[in-house]
Design brief:
Elements (H helix, E strand, L loop, with lengths): L1 E7 L3 H12 L4 E5 L5 H5 L2 H18 L12 H25 L3 E4 L3 E4 L2 E4 L2 E10 L3 E3 L12 E2 L1 H5 L7 E5 L3 H12 L3 E5 L13 H13 L3 E3 L3 E6 L4 E6 L4 E6 L1 E4 L3 E3 L32 E3 L10 H15 L12 E3 L5 E5 L2 H6 L5 E6 L4 H5 L6 E6 L5 E7 L3 H13 L4 H5 L10 H12 L4
Parallel strand pairs: 1-2, 1-6, 2-3, 6-17, 8-15, 9-10, 9-15, 10-11
Antiparallel strand pairs: 4-5, 5-6, 7-16, 12-13, 13-14, 18-19, 19-22, 20-21, 21-22
Helix pairs in contact: 1-8, 3-4, 3-6
């Protein structure tokens, strides 16, 4: 059967590519070997945020002294609720696929020639091929996954029950979110991070990382930084050796969750045969329009390299679909990131340290959340927003930690993408009382300094 577009991989990037291409009149098929929605919908973004939001409700209740009684999580019922959310989101996507007459084919795709895709013993021909096959966890020599008590993050989040002592290897985004979730469920949690700071991720300010570390430790999470580790045994307990700058310790747990190391999934796709170039790590090289080195092949999502995020995958899919459909579009300059820790984190652009290394002069403006009335009404006055601006007031980057950070950061990403200055934001009125008023405070102080 012949198609205008065949998308290999039905994750978020693949879905948005297929839908946008079909909206623009293309005949489209998606090939997915497992479940539509990929990692994000089935095992990562949607289930993790469902679980984290649930346990945050319990935390908020526990610190509200005007609420009587004890609130506990029924993990079985929470699991059913999580599955219901996944189904609802998936049904919404399925409805859209049906609306645009997109064929969904379940099976393992094989590509050995340009324009031809084998699946389930049949050959599909296509004018354009989109590779959206994602990435998967690496089983590293020092942390071999066994699917039982040494697992990847998404397996851990979907276990029917959790043991008491959990060790998380890696203090990045997944490590911090999982630590938030597990500790809120009264599990004993340890994070082991190789780098000398938590959240050693491009774009995340060191002060934000330290604020998150403080909050996690206050909740009882034990954090090892600047620590080289490896698994010694995993027959019953998981036993690590942890080498800190000052000592070597033995760390034991019932479950180890390995949040480091991923690789692109290109099984069954002969990239050389279809003249698609990759980088040294095997990720497909793409330009700002999601095109590969072969003009007949696009790549979106994790398989197309960093950042490995659903945010990027979603937008890259739209961009690919636009260009395939004849509408010129490019990836945004600024892609915000959101981390759903106990205190939310939102980041976009560069940090002060990164700007300094690049030789860019920037001024930092900071507002504490305790200065925002809405933060008090929500009983969450901790955290702050920092922005970095050049001499003209143009915003170069922003970091926020606190209630609503994952929403506020989108407004700042909008301002940066449109090259707005603080003077432009100062003209905008945000409703009161809302968390977004922190942007008003930032623009006001950036222009006039403290005025009260």
């Amino acid at each position: 059967m012949n198609y205008d577009v065949v998308v290999v991989g039905g994750g978020i990037g693949g879905l948005t590519t297929a839908i946008r291409s079909a909206e623009l009149g293309k005949k489209v098929a998606i090939i997915e070997k497992e479940e539509l929605g990929g990692e994000c919908l089935n095992r990562a973004c949607i289930p993790s945020k469902t679980l984290i939001d649930a346990v945050k409700l319990v935390y908020k209740t526990s610190k509200s002294n005007w609420i009587n009684g004890k609130v506990e999580i029924n993990y079985d019922k929470l699991g059913l609720f999580k599955n219901e959310i996944i189904k609802n989101v998936k049904d919404s996507f399925t409805s859209v696929l049906s609306k645009y007459h997109i064929d969904v084919i379940k099976g393992q795709a094989s590509i050995t020639r340009e324009g031809e895709i084998e699946v389930n013993g049949n050959t599909l021909t296509t004018d354009m091929t989109v590779i959206a096959t994602g990435s998967e966890p690496l089983s590293l020599a020092d942390f071999p996954l066994n699917g039982r008590n040494v697992v990847d993050p998404w397996t851990a989040m979907n276990l029917p029950s959790l043991p008491n002592d959990i060790i998380i290897v890696g203090g990045g985004v997944a490590g911090v979110e999982l630590a938030t979730l597990f500790r809120a469920m009264n599990k004993d949690v340890t994070i082991i991070e190789l780098m000398p700071r938590l959240l050693p991720v491009p774009g995340i300010d060191i002060e934000v990382a330290n604020e998150v570390k403080k909050r996690l430790e206050e909740k009882g999470v034990k954090i090892y930084l600047n620590t080289k580790s490896k698994i010694l045994k995993s027959e019953d307990k998981v036993i690590f050796t942890a080498q800190t700058p000052s000592s070597t310790e033995e760390v034991k747990g019932d479950l180890a969750v390995i949040t480091i190391g991923r690789k692109p999934v290109v099984n069954g796709i002969d990239l050389k045969a279809i003249k698609v170039e990759t980088d040294q790590r095997g990720y497909i090289k793409v330009d700002s329009r999601a095109r590969t080195s072969n003009p007949k092949v696009y790549a979106v999502g994790d398989v197309a390299g960093a950042p490995l995020s659903a945010t990027k995958a979603w937008r890259q899919g739209v961009v690919a679909g636009d260009n395939i459909g004849g509408k010129n579009n490019e990836m945004p300059k600024y892609i915000p990131s959101s981390i759903f820790a106990d205190l939310e984190i939102g980041v976009v652009g560069q940090t002060a340290e990164e700007l300094k290394k690049a030789g860019v002069e920037a001024r930092e403006i900071k507002v504490f959340m305790k200065e925002i009335p809405r933060a008090w009404t929500l009983n969450e006055p901790e955290g702050f927003l920092k922005v970095y601006v050049d001499s003209t007031g143009k915003i170069l980057g922003a970091n926020m930690v606190g209630e609503g950070a994952t929403e506020v950061i989108n407004t700042l990403a909008l301002a940066m993408e449109l090259s707005l200055k603080l003077s432009d934001l100062y003209r905008v009125q945000f409703s009161h009382p809302t968390i977004s008023e922190v942007i008003t405070e930032i623009s006001q102080r950036g222009i006039y300094g403290e005025i009260y």
